[in-house]
Design goal:
128 residues, flat, mainly alpha, 4 helices, 2 domains
């Protein structure tokens, strides 16, 4: 909601009157129902009087600035070079971890498969 609009006294008075119109005169017995109806009345009053806040994103740099474009291009080229580097220690470490995980998954799959075969051969659940 656009709560900044409530700084204006006219909007604030309009919100209060609209909110009073939306409030119920009878109160429900259950607290949850009362809270829900109160919340709905507040949201309805806000929608009618102050509306929703719109966000405007501002660019942090000018796209036409040659110096910034040059820096971004250098960064992209450095990243591409790093991606193509097969001797990078970090990549080797991550690949080794992935290999260990794949090996564990294969081993688990083989053990599960073997157990299923044994169970099917013996038809005996006590074997496992």
């Amino acid at each position: 909601m656009n709560t900044q609009a409530l700084q204006d006294p006219i909007k604030q008075d309009c919100f209060h009157t609209t909110h009073k119109d939306h409030l119920l005169s009878d109160f429900p017995d259950k607290t949850e129902e009362h809270r829900t109806k109160l919340k709905t009345s507040i949201i309805a009053a806000c929608e009618q009087t102050i509306g929703y806040q719109t966000k405007k994103h501002q660019d942090w740099f000018d796209e036409n600035d040659d110096e910034i474009e040059h820096i971004i291009d250098k960064k992209r080229k450095a990243f591409q070079i790093w991606q193509r580097d097969r001797n990078c220690a970090t990549k080797k470490k991550n690949n080794a971890k992935a290999e260990v995980q794949r090996t564990r998954q294969l081993k688990k799959h083989l053990v599960d498969k073997k157990a299923q075969e044994c169970l099917a051969d013996t038809h005996d659940a006590q074997f496992l």
